[in-house]
Amino acid sequence: MSHTNHDNIWTDAITPHPTMQHFPSEPLSPHPSTLVSTSSPLPYKQDPWTFFRTRRRRSLIALLLVASFLLLFFAQARIGEDRERRICFDSVKLDVGRDQAHLTVQSPSAVTVTAPARTETVTIYENAPIIPAVTASPPATTEPVYQPHTVESVVFAFIMWSENSAIEGSILIKSAIMYSTRPLEFHIICDEPSQNYLQGRLSLLHHPVFDVTVRFYRPSWQSMVDRISREGGISTDHSAGVPGLMKLFIHEILPDSVAKAIYVDTDAFFLTDPTLLWQTFAHMNASTAISMPTHPDQKTPHWHNASKICSCIMLLDLSKLRALRLMDSSFYRDDTSGLFPPALSPPTFEALFGPPGPDGHYKDVALGDQGYYWAIVSNRTDLFEHLSFDWEVSSCLLDMYGTGVGHDDATEEEQRRAMLHLNETPHQGEAIMPKLLHFNCLDGVDVYFEWTGWYDPDNSLTQRWGSALDYHVGTKWIWLNRGHGKLDMDTIVEPLFADQRFALEHSRGFTP
């Protein structure tokens, strides 16, 4: 009995058509005439999904292409919207009539409209009957530019003639570097031994906190003597000698580019930031050229009262002193052009000292340069201002005003009661706050910190200031290498004085 398996009707063996050709890599396609079951009497049935399988793949590919196109179109539209900018012409005055042909622009102009991260320029043409053209430029690529903030240097002018002077002066320089919050410039008038000593100490300075610039000026002894001779009326019997008188010519030796400077004698050192002293220049009167401490209580008629000031520390406006021609010269006196003012000092010298003697020099001038400075500032008070005693705490005559270290809990009232030598001075009733110590008038010694009194524990000066002296003298130079600053040293040999430069510029017969 024959039995038909209907469950396997599509899986029965298929006999290929004899005439059918196929490639080995392609599956055999059943021919309709061969799709006959050998075991089934049912007629041949074709697969109803064959047609849709091929069409479905094509439709899917087409759908994906359409979707991709729509996404791309949408993205481009969004980018175009981001690039649009609204331009407001409220700030541009246009005379616009109802008819566009009457559009008139009052004057040619260019208006820059700034949008976030983009600058658009609207160009409006005069009498143009069209809507102004808008030119949009892409945002310029900018990078931050970092420029170092330049800080004004604190400028010093020193005179150090002899190695002993340099030994003292090195402590002064070191103390300024220890406390300064600004770059420093040191202009040092010196001889060769002084320069050699100072360079030995300064060469230990590799990376200070702030830049340190040092310029050594090396006039010859003869050039200094000649400058004093050309002045004609000054001389000295002071222990500082000829180099000491150079304090009157600092403005002539230093170049014109140095406009202001702090002068301090070598036997001193700072207790605080010298920037505070430098800032005093900013508070001086417009006419002031010199500032130093004054002591109206001091009466020394045999010195023409020259002790009423102390030229141990001075603020010098060098530019003003040059313009005033502080010191006279035969080169200036020989000038008959009438284009330049006479020197400032001769009338002041004669007013205090009387006319020069038979040798042409003023008589009985004491204290070296200080005597001449006293003549200048006492007769030209418009050029002068008092400088606070805080910067002149001196061991000479003044006994440091009674100040000293120790008793850190002292009140200002207690300090006021302890003060000495302040009556009839600008600081009467005040407390002196020491900022710069001066150890002058320590007789019998060439270097102040070698004074034998420092080894006497009962000496009042030693008790009050001996520990401060030990600290500043003993501080090592290498300890100042605590930053990223640089040291710049240079030497100017045989610098010309200002009167020599004047003679050269005006052909006065001088040849260097």
From TrEMBL:
Protein name per Swiss-Prot or TrEMBL: Glycosyltransferase family 8 protein
UniProt keyword Nucleus, yes or no: no
Lineage, broadest ranks: Eukaryota, Fungi, Dikarya, Basidiomycota, Agaricomycotina
PANTHER family in UniProt: GLYCOSYLTRANSFERASE-LIKE PROTEIN LARGE (PTHR12270:SF25), GLYCOSYLTRANSFERASE-RELATED (PTHR12270)
Molecular-function GO terms, alphabetical: glucuronosyltransferase activity; xylosyltransferase activity
Major location category of this protein: membrane
Transmembrane segments: 60-79
Keyword entries, A-Z: Glycoprotein, Membrane, Signal-anchor, Transmembrane, Transmembrane helix
Organism annotation: Heterobasidion irregulare (strain TC 32-1)
